[in-house]
Structure formats: structure tokens, C-alpha cells
Design a protein that fits this description.
306 residues; globular; alpha+beta; Alpha-Beta Plaits; single chain
Length: 306
């Protein structure tokens, strides 16, 4: 049996939606599991493969965790992870790997790797519901609840919107980025973010691009995280070049701009030029919004993931 899963990159928060909003982007990690295998083992190829080869493989962790839940094991298997997501840059690499592993584990046991089944398991393992939900469902997601009561919904995104991301060489630790946040926030800041998160949902659903600049502003996390990033001025450069809105991607270090088809190229050029002027190495990548989420293929045949 040959199982293959493809899982998209994700950008969490989008400014005001701290731990509640996420967006799937069309940059995918692909993992393949062959059972049984003549040459068993785990192989990591693609982006940052050298880094991933020195750490625990989260895809395999997800497979083994799912098997453990049901007291099952597998015959000798071969797992190949073609990683295309940058490691520790705020694009949901760990969420994608965890989702991929759990989906492969479920499919290997003949279980339906439904989104409802995998969501609480992936959140419990990975810890970031906004990234996990976007990776599973695709599109623009809202997530709520805790533990096994967690819920998520993928909301429509108006046609014509796309993203440009600047991915610096510098990595970022989510744990460290959370540690600098205050434990309490002012009521005015909470109200500010609630209003803009609601505005963001409406703007993305209805295609109100003019509202995105204001809707992607934030007072809960970006004012504390951005000063530590030397490439933070790229957000202003993106807006000035025509981006509708721009924000830190998750905890960073990637920056995200939302554009339309005509502004994506000048926005990407402006971000690249600004990064060069600041002396910050990295790459600027235009990305479509992913609307498919998790994709499973069994022995070459695509399977619907409900």
C-alpha cells in the first residue's frame, strides 16, 4: 500500500486574530508512506532537509501517535517527507507535519482521516489550532474552544486575493515570541482587536479589499514582536507598493502581505528591495490562497477527506 498526503503552509493571526484566525497558502509538504517496505526507514528531502534530519521527525511522530491510540503497529515501512515549508519561520511547518503524520496513521489503519477526527488530535499534539485548522480545512479559518471541544470552520475567501510572503533566513521560536507578550491586556486593546478581527472576516468573505489595511492591524502581539525583527519595515513597504494589508505571519519571522493579482508583483519587488536595503537575507514568494487543505492519495487514487 502506498499512501500520500499533501498539506499546505499556513499563516496564523493575520494581525488581530491572535490564536483564532488562520489562512492556508499554496506551498505544500508531501509525505509518502509505503507499507510494507523492502527498504524501511525515514527519508527527508526538500527544503531545510539538513535541519530536519537532525531533529525528531514530526510526520513519523504523528503516525506513531495515531497507532498508539489504537494499540496498533505497522509492518516495516518507508516514510519519505518532501518538505517545502521553511522551518521555524511562522508558516505552519510543524502543523503541516503533524497533520500529515496523523492522516497517514489513520489511513494506514483503514480509518477515515476526517477533519473532525484529526483536528483535536493535531491540536493536542502541535498546540496551535489556527495553523492546524487551516492546514486541514484550507482557506480562511476561524478556530475556537480548547481540547477535544475545539471547533473550526473554513470561511469563503473572495476571488482575486493572493499573498506575498517574505521568508527571512532568520528563524523564530514561537515559544520565545510568546514569552515577550504581556500576561494582561488593556480593555481598550482587547476591544480594538475584536473589532478588527470581525472586520477582517467580513473583508475576506466579501472581497472588501479597501478594509484590509485597517483590519490587519493589531495591539495584542505585533507591537511586542515586531521591534525584535530587523525586517519589520517590509510591512510598510508592502502597503506603500499596493498591498491591501500586511502582518506578521504567526509568531514570525515571515511577513505576509495580501494583494490582488495586479499588485502582487510590485509588492514582491518592494519587499525584496526593502530587505536588501536593510541587509536582511531572505526570499520573497508570491503564493495563492490554498482552498483544498489536506489531500490524501491511496495507491495513486485521490480520496476525499471530509
Amino acid at each position: 500500500m502506498r499512501l500520500e498526503v499533501s498539506v499546505p503552509a499556513t499563516s496564523a493571526n493575520l494581525g488581530p486574530g491572535f490564536d483564532a484566525l488562520g489562512l492556508a497558502l499554496d506551498l505544500r509538504t508531501v509525505a509518502t508512506l509505503e507499507i510494507p517496505a523492502a527498504n524501511p526507514g525515514v527519508r527527508v528531502i526538500g527544503r531545510d532537509a539538513a535541519i530536519l534530519g537532525r531533529t525528531r521527525n514530526l510526520v513519523e511522530d504523528g503516525i506513531l501517535h495515531y497507532l498508539m491510540l489504537f494499540g496498533r503497529t505497522l509492518p516495516p515501512y518507508a516514510l519519505t517527507v518532501d518538505n517545502r515549508l521553511p522551518v521555524a519561520r511562522g508558516l505552519g511547518g510543524s502543523a503541516a507535519a503533524t497533520v500529515a503524520g496523523l492522516a497517514l496513521g489513520a489511513a494506514a489503519l483503514g480509518h477515515d482521516p476526517s477533519r473532525a477526527r484529526l483536528l483535536p488530535l493535531a491540536v493536542a499534539m502541535e498546540g496551535h489550532g489556527d495553523n492546524v485548522a487551516a492546514a486541514l480545512l484550507g482557506g480562511f479559518v476561524v478556530v475556537w474552544g480548547v481540547g477535544r471541544t475545539i471547533g473550526a470552520r473554513s470561511l469563503p475567501v473572495a476571488a482575486g486575493l493572493s499573498a506575498v510572503v517574505f521568508i527571512p533566513e532568520r528563524t523564530s521560536s514561537t515559544k520565545a515570541a510568546r514569552a515577550i507578550l504581556p500576561t494582561q491586556v488593556a480593555q481598550a486593546d482587547a476591544v480594538y482587536n475584536i473589532a478588527r478581527a470581525a472586520l477582517l472576516v467580513d473583508a475576506l468573505r466579501e472581497g472588501r479589499a479597501a478594509d484590509l489595511r485597517e483590519a490587519m492591524t493589531d495591539r495584542l502581539h505585533q507591537p511586542y514582536r515586531l521591534p525584535a525583527l530587523p525586517h519589520a519595515p517590509l510591512l510598510d513597504a508592502a502597503r506603500e507598493a499596493g498591498a491591501h494589508g500586511a502582518a506578521l505571519s504567526g509568531a514570525g519571522s515571515t511577513l505576509l502581505a495580501l494583494c490582488d493579482e495586479t499588485s502582487a508583483a510590485p509588492v514582491a519587488a518592494a519587499m525584496t528591495e526593502c530587505a536588501a536595503a536593510l541587509g536582511v537575507p531572505g526570499e520573497t514568494v508570491p503564493l495563492a490562497i490554498d482552498r483544498r487543505g489536506l489531500i490524501l492519495t491511496v495507491d495513486g487514487t485521490p480520496r476525499c477527506v471530509s
